[in-house]
Amino acid sequence: MLNFVLCDDNLPFLKNLESTLNKLIVKNNFDAKIGYTSTKILDVLDYMKKNKTDVLFLDILLKSDKTGLDIAEKIRNTNKDIYFIFTTGHLEYAFLAFQVKSFDYLPKPITSERLEKTLFRLFDDVNFSRNKFISLNSKTYINQNDIYYIKRDGMKLIFKTNNETFETYSSFNKISEKLPDNFVRCHKSYIANINNIERIEANTNTLYFSDNAKCYIGPKYKNDFLEVINDGISLEASNNA
Length: 241
Prior knowledge:
Blueprint: E1 2-7, H1 11-28, E2 32-38, H2 41-50, E3 55-59, H3 68-78, E4 83-88, H4 94-99, E5 104-107, H5 112-128, E6 133-135, E7 141-143, E8 147-153, E9 156-161, E10 165-169, H6 172-176, E11 183-187, E12 190-193, E13 199-201, E14 206-208, E15 214-216, H7 222-228, E16 234-236
Parallel strand pairs: 1-2, 1-3, 3-4, 4-5, 13-16
Antiparallel strand pairs: 6-7, 8-9, 8-12, 9-10, 11-12, 13-14, 14-15
């Protein structure tokens, strides 16, 4: 699910943008939510330090000593994947907006039709960014970095992420074509994202992730799996297994 954040120092405009965006998300069944809105850029930056943000709607001329372009440039230095969508009534900033690799530039006032076109383009781009997202269907995308493991359950695949679980009808063979090298088969029923493993309990052949999420290593896959594990992951043999 894409997390949207909105920042504009014009409160009536911000509320209208939030309302219109929510309606379009529901209308088109986009896999997205508005996680945070604020008229204060410092509050937005504080939120973004603690919460994954996929899309930032940002006014260019803020009531701040820095412009939205300055803020975007700073964010881009540490977050290469975020989508910037600028909103402004000053068309002369359009060229500068694209210098920070913005996805779109929406001149005010923003119509629902114009915003909807941007959202369709956004989700099309997400769908084709295979190095970042996995498409489960035309409306649902998962950031690969968020996935702990993929479990096969009959005809279904279950994707366990850091905040929710997704299901789709597919096979390991088909989904493997979309996965980078850090996804490794560890069991007949599991593929693990080795980048998110916190520890391995050797005696029980159990992989642990954040929030006590876990999956298992099968005897058939154990040797090959351990060969590709990152050196930083600790092996913990438990005597209480």
